[in-house]
Structure formats: structure tokens, C-alpha cells
Amino acid sequence: MSNRTLARRYAVAIFNLATEAKAVEPVGRDLHTIASTIYANDDVRRFYLSPVFERAAKLKALQTSFEGKVSDIALHALLLFVRKRREALLPEVAVEYDALALAASGRESLEIVSARPLSSDEAAILVARLEKSYGKTFAVTRRTDPGLLSGLSITMNDRRIDGTLAGRLDELVRHLSTNASN
Predict the structure, then answer these.
(1) How far is residue 160's CA from residue 67's CA, in Å, rounded to a whole number?
(2) Contact 36/95 with Cβ under 8 angstroms?
């Protein structure tokens, strides 16, 4: 079984518990807080991921560090990962949990990568057009990548629209190399 499949199973279980407790958002935030805290420090990360350290020592250290600071659901999920020797799944479980929370809210992820920063108005117009065209509501993330030269790239879940100059040049190279071999 792949790590993503396993992470998704854990995420579904955690999400169901969070839904019952009406704490979907706080649990998701806590999963990311725990992951970023553990992975921010190399020594802590090595301790957490290392099979050399006894599980009891890890459980005690993690419980002492996070108890009262994160939701019980997130804390018990973390402790379960240690008990089942699934520590490495934590970041992927957090990502899968986010996907479940987004789907439950009726939205889909949308990433806009542009060669230059888009103004708020430009981004709002683009998102409104996409929502109208696809009949969906999106949770939008934006970033800038000057390496694109010009234009923008849009990713909606597994669908990608590449309107960048770099993408067009790549397409031209593929087309020319395909035609040159004929």
C-alpha cells in the first residue's frame, strides 16, 4: 500500500472525528502546527523519525510538548503515528486532511502562478471567470515565478492550464522535434 493511500486513510479517520466534534478547521491547523514544529528543527525531526529511540520516550516527549497546546484529536493522531511506527506519514496526512476539508466545504484548490505579481483586481476577475466557467468555488493560492518569463499557469486539482511563455516555448520545441523525426 502506498504512503499516500495510507495517509489518506488516516486523514479520513481524523477528519471524521473532527467533523463529529465540529472542529474541522482547528484540527487541520493543529496538524500543520505539529508538523511544522517537528520538522522545523533537525534534532527534533531526527528524534521523531528515528526508529532507534523507544516509542515510550517519543510518546512522553510529544505528549509533554503538545498537550494543552493542540486539540486532543490532533494530539492523539500524532501519538497513534508513533505507536504504529507511522511517524513519517504526518506531513502527508496533513495535506490529505486539507483536501478533505476543502472538498467538504464545497471548494476546490486553485493555484495561480504568474510571471509578475497580479493585482487583487486581476486575480479576482480571473477567479470569477474560472468559477463561472467551471461552476465551482475555489480556494485560491497565488505565487510569482519570474522564470515563467510572461503569462501565467493555473492548476485546478489535477487540471493545468499553461499560458506562460516558457510553456509555449516548450510546446514549440516538442512540436519541432516531433516533426523533425518524421
Answers:
(1) 41
(2) no
Which regions of the chain does DSSP assign to beta strands (E)?
107-114, 137-144, 151-156, 159-164
Closest CA to 38 of 49, 27, 28: 49
Q: Are the beta carbons of 114 and 131 closer than 8 angstroms?
A: no
pLDDT at residue 7 in the model: 93
Residues of the chain with pLDDT under 50: none
* Total-model pTM: 0.72
Distant-in-sequence contacts of 129-138, Cβ < 8 A, 24+ apart: 130/154, 130/156, 136/107, 136/108, 137/106, 137/107, 137/108, 138/107, 138/108, 138/109, 138/110
